[in-house]
């Protein structure tokens, strides 16, 4: 067999490397996390469960923490100056989904590190029947035109009442931050898909928002809370992607163990 000279070997190696990169660009390793399911993973990477099962030769829907499976996902190679927030913003994905895709719950990343990119959030489909909406719902849609998530006037009022109950007397940015946490959850695939469902979410009997439990959510919203709600809905987020908040007098170790996003007044925001 004819030997390749050094230049030929180098060229062949480069070609092989490029070819391999092209083939593997859409395939990535995902490590199963606690409470994961194929359904959740499918939503995270916008891939049907049957496709995940087929690609991994899985005979059932059962998966285990620590198990590694192949998923179809793009990757981002971390560069100097990158942060999880900036990466999420660049690729138009939620920081919560980015953390979930990489099981990355702190903010430590290094140049050269490769991160899996979850699928982008899809805009909700609008049914044709929506053309026959009432004047009230049409007005609500116009109100939400500039918002980062869709919402109705009723949902806007609910968000403003939550902000009133949770952050009255706190700096304005803290009030916006409370609204932003709700918006971030709506945008994340790990939480319900609209404001009402996020605020009233009670997984395993655990209320996510104390005002829903103690009834203060029913109190009227203040004008400044409405202003803060509007700002959050239009994309303002002083927390840069936080998913939780609590008062600094809280003693919950689980909350305090989460990566800190920012502290504003007495309000602590974490990822």
From TrEMBL:
Q: Membrane spanning segments where?
A: none
PROSITE patterns xrefs: LYSM
List GO molecular-function terms, semicolon-separated: hydrolase activity; lytic endotransglycosylase activity
Q: Which InterPro entries match?
A: Cell_wall_hydrolase_SleB, LysM, LysM_dom_sf, SleB_dom1
What keywords is this UniProt entry annotated with?
A: Signal
Any Pfam family hit: LysM
Q: Extract the CDD domains matched here.
A: LysM (cd00118)
Stretches assigned to the LysM domain: 28-71, 74-117
Signal peptide, first to last residue: 1-27
**Gene3D superfamilies according to UniProt:** 6.20.240.60, Cell wall hydrolase SleB, domain 1, LysM domain
Q: What is the superkingdom listed in this entry's lineage?
A: Bacteria
Query: What is the protein's given name?
Result: LysM domain-containing protein
Per the UniProt entry, what species is this protein from, by scientific name? Mobilisporobacter senegalensis
> Which lineage do the record's taxonomy fields give for this organism?
Bacteria, Bacillati, Bacillota, Clostridia, Lachnospirales
């Amino acid at each position: 067999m004819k030997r390749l000279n050094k230049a030929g070997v180098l060229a062949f190696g480069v070609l092989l490397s490029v070819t391999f990169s092209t083939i593997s660009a859409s395939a990535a390793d995902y490590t199963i996390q606690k409470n994961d399911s194929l359904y959740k993973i499918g939503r995270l990477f916008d891939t049907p469960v049957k496709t995940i099962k087929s690609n991994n030769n899985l005979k059932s829907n059962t998966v285990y923490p620590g198990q590694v499976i192949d998923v179809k996902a793009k990757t981002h190679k971390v560069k100097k100056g990158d942060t999880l927030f900036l990466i999420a913003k660049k690729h138009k994905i939620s920081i919560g989904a980015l953390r979930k895709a990489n099981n990355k719950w702190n903010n430590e990343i290094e140049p050269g590190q490769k991160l899996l990119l979850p699928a982008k959030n899809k805009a909700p489909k609008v049914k044709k029947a929506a053309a026959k909406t009432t004047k009230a719902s049409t007005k609500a849609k116009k109100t939400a035109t500039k918002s980062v998530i869709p919402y109705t006037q009723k949902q806007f009022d609910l968000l403003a009442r939550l902000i009133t109950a949770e952050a009255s007397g706190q700096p304005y940015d803290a009030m916006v931050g409370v609204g932003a946490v709700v918006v971030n959850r709506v945008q994340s695939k790990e939480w319900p898909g609209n404001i009402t469902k996020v605020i009233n979410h009670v997984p395993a009997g655990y209320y996510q928002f104390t005002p829903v439990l103690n009834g203060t959510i029913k109190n009227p919203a203040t004008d400044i809370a409405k202003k803060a709600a509007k700002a959050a809905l239009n994309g303002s987020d002083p927390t840069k992607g936080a998913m939780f908040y609590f008062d600094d007098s809280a003693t919950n170790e689980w909350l305090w163990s989460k990566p800190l996003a920012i502290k504003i007044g007495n309000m602590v925001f974490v990822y």
